[in-house]
Design goal:
The model has no long low-confidence stretch (mean pLDDT 94). Helices cover 37% and strands 20% of the residues.
Length: 280
């Protein structure tokens, strides 16, 4: 591949691992990239875990990584707020431990929507004015949290979503994703969210910008044409679709428009060959 990228961005589930098991060739590919000096980032829409959680998860699979190499929709949301909304300090958060802890670690004053749920569901106005509502996946989402978020938005808070995935994968199938909560809040609050996670380009733009690179210096490796490949196209980043997750060869052959990658390969081993890290 010419020119060789200076930064390779990986999706996680379906590219690096499946169900907690490394995809064949993934461990070797990451090691070769590290050894070659090419930058590596792991980008996921998941808002449940922290970046440190992912470092531990990857280490258990034999994949070395650092917190700085992990980009979740939470950390990308924080980068977006710091760069584009520096006036945001007080946040009402709809989400779980990963989102709450990452926002607090970044210095934001965070109030979980759960703490205001009872009062908000009774129709009482919020006693605090929030700068932003940040919403991610919340598996305890209920009417009270919806009411609190909607009230904050109607009170002038910006509305930012870590991602708008309609569903997320589990070992037993799919469950409702953050997008279901985001849609409910947008309906109740009367304002559409600024979405950070894929397929919106904000996450990949934040990654490239934080690395001090241009979009043309980066390469996205993903398994989902509707998320990974579309996000890369919108961010001006080259992309490789690997057939180890969502898409198969038949699907890949029919892709067009924003969903069409620059390259389609079977898996991580073929990516290493494409990048010239091993001989073909």
């Amino acid at each position: 591949m010419e020119p060789r990228p200076r930064l390779v961005i990986f999706d996680l589930d379906g590219v690096i691992y499946r169900g907690g098991v490394p995809v064949p060739g993934a461990v070797d590919l990451v090691a070769r990239l590290h050894a070659s000096g090419i930058g590596v980032r792991f980008a996921t829409n998941n808002s449940l875990a922290t970046r440190a959680d992912y470092v531990r998860t990857l280490a258990a699979m034999g994949i070395a990584s650092s917190v700085d190499e992990i980009v979740t929709s939470n950390s990308a949301t924080i980068l977006h707020l710091q760069r584009h909304a520096p006036d945001v300090h007080r946040i009402l958060a709809v989400g779980e431990r990963g989102l709450l802890s990452e926002l607090r670690a970044a210095g934001f004053e965070v109030t979980p929507a759960a703490e205001l749920a009872d009062a908000a569901s009774s129709g009482a106005p919020l006693e605090v004015v929030f700068d932003a509502v940040v919403a991610g996946l919340d598996r305890s989402f209920d009417y009270g949290r919806l009411a609190a978020a909607a009230s904050a938005i109607r009170g002038g808070a910006r509305f930012v979503a870590t991602n708008a995935d309609s569903r997320y994968p589990t070992p037993h199938g799919f469950l409702p994703g953050a997008g279901s909560m985001v849609s409910a809040i947008a309906t109740a609050g009367g304002e559409a969210a600024v979405v950070i996670g894929k397929p919106a380009p904000a996450m990949l733009e934040a990654i490239v910008g934080a690395a001090g690179l241009r979009p043309t210096d980066a390469l996205m490796i993903g398994d989902n044409p509707d998320a990974d490949i579309v996000a890369a196209r919108r961010a001006g980043i080259r992309s490789v679709l690997v057939l180890t997750g969502v898409a198969d060869a038949g699907t890949a052959a029919r892709l067009d428009g924003e969903r069409r990658p620059d390259h389609v390969v079977d898996g991580p081993g073929a990516v290493a060959t494409l990048l010239g890290l091993v001989s073909g």
